[in-house]
Amino acid sequence: MPKARRVSRARDKRADLQLQENIQSSEKPVPHADSHSQSGNDTVTPSSIGAETPAAAQAKADSAETAAKDYTDTHELKDNPHSGSASNTDITSLQQQIDDLEARITALENV
Prior knowledge:
mainly alpha, 3 helices, elongated
């Protein structure tokens, strides 16, 4: 941040005080982000700030994937996994009715 400079003296004492505070705050050093980089002298690591490490994130992702696969494998083995849906017997029966109707239509077309 560039240093603030007083251009003219304020006539209001409060404004003069605020101007003086701004001048003093402009003399503070700029943030030292470069010193926190990997090549800096004050490096910041995920563990030093309480952040999750890539290894911990990967472990959570692997665990979630395993749980999802276990759930779907178990779900697929159920006789009728979707309550209220047609069972395999119902589907077979409907397919037979469709086949019968197609045979009738074909027979009528050939008359």
